[in-house]
Fold this sequence. Notes:
Layout (H helix, E strand, L loop, with lengths): L13 E3 L2 E3 L14 H7 L3 E6 L7 H10 L2 E4 L5 H4 L9 H13 L2 E8 L13 H18 L6 E6 L12 H6 L3 H12 L4 E6 L7 H16 L5 E4 L2 E3 L7 H10 L3 E12 L4 H19 L4 E6 L9 H4 L3 E2 L12 H9 L16 E3 L6 E4 L9 E8 L2 E6 L3 E4 L7 E10 L11 E4 L8 E9 L5 E10 L5 E2 L2 E5 L5 E6 L2 E3 L4 E5 L6 E2 L4 E10 L21
Parallel strand pairs: 3-4, 3-11, 4-5, 5-6, 6-7, 7-8, 8-10, 9-10, 10-11
Antiparallel strand pairs: 1-2, 10-12, 13-14, 14-17, 15-16, 15-18, 18-19, 20-21, 21-28, 22-27, 23-26, 24-28, 25-26
Helix pairs in contact: 5-7, 9-10, 10-12
The structure holds ligand G3I.
Amino acid sequence: MSRSGTMSLIAAAVTIGAVAVLPVAMTADAAVPGSLGALAAAKGKYFGSATDNPELSDAPYVSILGSEFNQLTPGNTMKWQYTEPSQNQFTFTQADTVVNLARSNGQVVRGHTLVWHNQLPGWVANVAADQLLGVMRNHITNEVTHFRDQVVHWDVVNEAFEENGTRRQTVFQQKIGDGYIAEAFRAARAADPTVKLYYNDYNIDGIGAKSDAVYAMVQSFKQQGVPIDGVGLQAHLILGQVPATMQQNIQRFADLGVDVAITELDIRMNLPRDTAKDTQQANDYRAVTNACLAVTRCVGITVWDYTDKYSWIPSVFPGQGAALPYDENLARKPAYAAISAALGAVPDTTAPSTPGPPTASNVTSSTATLAWTASTDNVGVAGYNVYRGDTLLAQSATNGVTLTGLSASTQYQVVVRARDAAGNLSAASAATTFTTTVAVGGSCRVAYGASNWGGGGGFTGQVTVTNTGPTAITGWSLVWTYANGQRVAQMWNATYTQPAATVTATNVSYNASIGANGGTQSFASTGRTPAPTASRRRSPSTGRTAPSP
Ligand code: G3I
């Protein structure tokens, strides 16, 4: 989906008193009305998604990625392993692809991540202790310089603390010492004076030993003048376990004078999904969204990819998953609606327009085909309901349907109503009346023959219907079931439907009448393999035949 407008990157913070806040323009132009990105932008925040290069060949996925979100994070390809796989050999091609996509969509980009013990190429571990600080600075300088003015945040250091609040014993910690984090931030600032510099970690979403340690570090950086602008709360959460102190935690970081971003949100559950879990997950997503909305300096939320199709969870937590607001088929889950509502979406109360009156065709003793002029809707028509009086006869996703299971020789007066995804129903269309034909049964005989084409590529079927009753009939249909997957390819002198194994053939206008006491009509068809090798004769009471291979 294309969008109008251009990306507005304003890297410098606006200073209001002593508090630096993100300019609204930094949230980018989320041009698709009602999208999560547009709703967040209206509140001065972004709503984004992680993505990864292999997913960008999935066109439906890319379409939603572009229309629904106003921020992207490359899930992998800005990491050290990808950008400096050999010492001082820098390659940004894959990350550039994501950045360029974001630019064409009018989305801002979070840079993730410069210094992390994971996804680190093997050569880094072999760097001598007295060289590693220089190597780390060189990596940061090259990458930050390459993406200058193209990313709005950098996760400068990622996951440097253990659960108990002590420093993780990474190669950087062990060879450079406690000062490596501050040095990383200084190197990033030197390479780009305006991009926002973040510390990012998991399990620091609520107040606890680990977030206390990060809080202390930020406080000390602020006191020492180390350039830190934000804290990223990854928020890889578990169903029903959104920390009760999340908003309070966001607020205490904000009160230190840094921004806060929810950087990698997902909420996993034990599989399989069910309605109760989906409802709980929706409540959890709502709680996280509200926690961010409640604090001015919480600048935005990023889901760690938006669809269960591409979530990292099942490969790392066997038996768990379904963690994102879209399912594996890219359909919105209740979590989506909860986020949307929390961001201020106005509930849709507008019903679709009234559909045109249905017209009936191909009426048989048990079926009729209806078609009508489509409705329109402010959001979108989800489908149509067909009623006889108060009875729902059928539902259809499109502006037409074939009614089945009708009673023979019966008058039907039907109306159609359109519905939207919010459950709004249009007014009823004008009514249409049709009468099903008399049933053919117990007074007919059917002869069916089939012959293979040479080579076994298909077969020809010939059918003759004989009226053995004492009265002439007008309108007939013949129903049979193929036993071995045969499909009708073409039919002459009858129309047909074949949704699966069962074929319904119905007269055309010029052979509707069959005279009494032995009058006949015939029709023929070609079919695709496997071809029948023999045929059985009809069942006289039902008029059905069952050709068998
Ligand atoms: O690229 C190779 C591919 O060539 C190979 O065939 C395939 C076989 O497994 O692996 C591919 O690499 C995988 C890579 O993702 C790209 O898909 C790695 O095995 C896999 O371990 C790696 O996982 C990433 C993980 O970080 C690594 O720790 C996830 O995609 C990524 O979503 C995840 O993201 C992290 C954040 O960066 C930091 N916070 C936690 C978050 C979740 O773990």
